[in-house]
């Protein structure tokens, strides 16, 4: 099946053309980072308006780069949730319009489901497996039994890890989004220079907390009188990043031991972080579990990742009616109630 996939959950307008949910013929992403940078974060109304401006040209570019026409497309998928409601509506309405006009099947796919299966675009992973999803809006551990069958094992009780990175970066004067820049600065610092806390590290659950780490980061800046040398900034970033990686590694290892899973995936925008990728690789080798992390280009929001699960649903006649609405706070565990 030749699928057109659309993603507009936050601040990227993306479209992709895939064959059988595995072979990517094209993948186009139009980012709004520069637009939102001056505000220090994503402004929902601005994001929605930009999606409206870009959705048609992005789809047209994806078709052109994929070497196909609308008449060649056999199915269409789009992000139904979670995400910003206005942004989601742009993508889902575009997909439904194309589905109606071309008389082709349509499926509204869960955004996190897309991230989990992004690795499938590069290698096939046997079910069941564990998934750690880390992004600006999510820090979750899932047990993945198959397409549409997910169980939440743990989640952040306050801030997502990506938000913690971005807000900490802002505290030292780094423009949004700052996570990648903290990663770069950390490479020149001492990860043991500052004893940051590890919230909920040994609390007996698989949940996370990053609010306290953000506060501790700000306190270190105040202690320095807001005058930070280059070396001090690098030490701050390296120590903060080490604390984050300790938490993510410990909880993931505990989840592997609890479930007995021998395979795990790390996905989402924060999966681009070099220290986290290195830490998870070493942990998987020690534990003897198979690790899959998508290439950096597949870690951030993109449309290609949605087509993996989307292809499964369409091929198995799990279609979404054209009357569906977006679900901004869609829980991944409830996907099975819709696609079953």
What would your notes on this structure say?
- This protein is an alpha/beta fold.
- It folds into two domains: 2-117 and 299-338, Nucleotidyltransferase, domain 5; 127-293, Nucleotidyltransferase, domain 5 (2-Layer Sandwich).
- Helix content is 43%, strand content 19%.
- The protein has twelve helices and ten strands.
- It has helices at 33-37, 44-66, 85-102, 111-116, 161-171, 179-186, 211-223, 230-259, 274-287, 296-299, 306-315, 335-338; strands at 2-7, 12-19, 23-31, 75-81, 106-110, 129-134, 139-146, 149-155, 263-267, 290-292.
- The strands form two sheets. Strands 3-2-1-4-5 form a five-stranded mixed β-sheet, sandwiched between helices. The protein has a five-stranded mixed β-sheet with strand order 8-7-6-9-10.
- Helix 6 (179-186) packs across helix 8 (230-259) and helix 8 runs parallel beside helix 9.
- It starts with a strand and ends with a helix.
Please, how many helices? 12
Sum up the overall morphology in one term: globular
Low-pLDDT windows of residues: none
Tell me the number of structural domains: 2
Question: What structural class should be given to the helix and strand makeup?
Answer: alpha/beta
- CATH overall fold name of the largest domain: Nucleotidyltransferase, domain 5
What proportion of the residues form beta strands (DSSP E)?
Answer: 15-25%
Query: Between the first and last Cα atoms, what is the distance in angstroms?
Result: 20 Å
Largest sheet: 5 strands, mixed
| Total count of strands | 10
Task: Indicate the percent of residues in helices.
Answer: 40-55%
**CATH structural architecture of the largest domain:** 2-Layer Sandwich
Strand numbers in spatial order across the main sheet: 3-2-1-4-5
CATH homologous superfamily grouping of the largest domain = ATPase, nucleotide binding domain
The CATH class of the largest domain, by name, is Alpha Beta
Helix-strand topology string: EEEHHEHEHEEEHHHHEHEHHH
The chain-level mean pLDDT equals 95
- Alpha-carbon Rg, integer: 20 Å
């Amino acid at each position: 099946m030749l699928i057109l996939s659309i993603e507009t959950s936050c601040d990227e307008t993306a479209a992709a053309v895939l064959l059988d949910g595995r072979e990517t013929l094209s993948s186009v992403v139009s980012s709004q980072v520069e637009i939102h940078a001056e505000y220090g974060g994503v402004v929902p109304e601005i994001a929605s308006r930009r999606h409206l401006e870009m959705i048609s040209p992005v789809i047209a570019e994806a078709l052109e780069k994929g070497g196909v026409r609308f008449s060649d497309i056999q199915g269409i998928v789009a992000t139904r949730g979670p995400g910003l409601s206005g942004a989601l509506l742009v993508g889902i309405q575009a997909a439904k319009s194309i589905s109606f006009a071309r008389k082709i099947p349509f499926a509204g796919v869960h955004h996190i489901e897309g991230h989990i299966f992004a690795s499938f675009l590069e290698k096939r992973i046997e079910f069941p497996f564990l998934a750690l999803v880390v992004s600006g809006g999510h820090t979750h551990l899932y047990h993945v039994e198959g397409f549409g069958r997910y169980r939440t094992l743990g989640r952040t009780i306050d801030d997502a890890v990506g938000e913690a990175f971005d807000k900490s970066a802002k505290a030292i004067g780094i423009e949004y989004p700052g996570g990648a820049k903290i990663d770069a600065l950390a490479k020149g610092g001492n990860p043991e220079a500052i004893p940051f806390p590890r919230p909920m590290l040994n609390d007996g659950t698989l949940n996370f907390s990053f609010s306290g780490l953000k506060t501790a980061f700000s306190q270190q800046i105040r202690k320095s009188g807001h005058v930070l040398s280059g070396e001090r900034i690098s030490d701050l970033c390296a120590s903060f990043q080490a604390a984050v990686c300790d938490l993510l590694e410990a909880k993931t290892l505990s989840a592997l031991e609890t479930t007995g899973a021998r395979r795990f995936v790390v996905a989402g925008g924060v999966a681009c972080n070099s220290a986290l990728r290195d830490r998870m690789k070493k942990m998987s080798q020690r534990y003897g579990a198979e690790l899959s992390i998508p290439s950096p280009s597949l870690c951030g929001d993109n449309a290609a990742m949605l087509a993996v699960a989307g292809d499964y649903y369409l091929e198995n006649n799990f279609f979404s009616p054209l009357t569906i609405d977006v679900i901004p706070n869609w829980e991944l565990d409830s996907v099975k109630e819709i696609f079953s």
